[in-house]
Amino acid sequence: MNMITVRDRESLRESVRNDGEVLRLGRLKRRARPRKILLLIDVSGSMKGRTDDNMKLAHALSHAAPNVEIFTFGTRLTRVTRALRVKRREQALSAAAHLVSDWDGGTRIGDALQAFLAVPRFGGYARGAAVVIISDGLERGDPAALRDAVAKLSRRAWRVSWLTPLATGPGFKPQTEALVAIQRYVDDIVDGGSSAAVVAHLLSLGRLRRAA
Prior knowledge:
Helix content: 40-55%
Number of strands: 8
Radius of gyration: 16 Å
Distance between the termini: 12 Å
Oligomer: single chain
Number of helices: 9
Shape: globular
CATH topology: Rossmann fold
């Protein structure tokens, strides 16, 4: 199984303009069996400053990559894949907004991920996938529930990446209880504070797969 490849890296990087607004992701060319991408987006109050741009990026990614599943979480889990497949961005984001009931609320990441894993169809999306979680990790629930859920995800996924706006430099070390708890079960804890950073990480996953 191969990771998706990029036909034009520059067009992908240039899809992010000032303030991280996503214009358009270049078409990602797939091989025979593309690597799945599972994108989990924190929409809680502490991520409010990034939510709009993260959802725009998710919409662009859903049209650029051939095999993407997208969920949001705050105090509950919501699958928004179908809504974001609508071609017109404004209509897609509006459809997603009507599905998500926990915008700008609390953060119970562990409960949301446990709910994800409890649905066999959802859990199957993680099998062999590049799992990308965009969250600051400011958990208000039980860190043990989060740790257990991420450990299960790591056993199913090809790779688990946690992208947080708190990772402001290469020497970043997790400080929150939640990020410390999951550190051993993820492959990356890196910058998720801008659309450019998220796009750069997605591209790096493709390079990792080809190098392997």
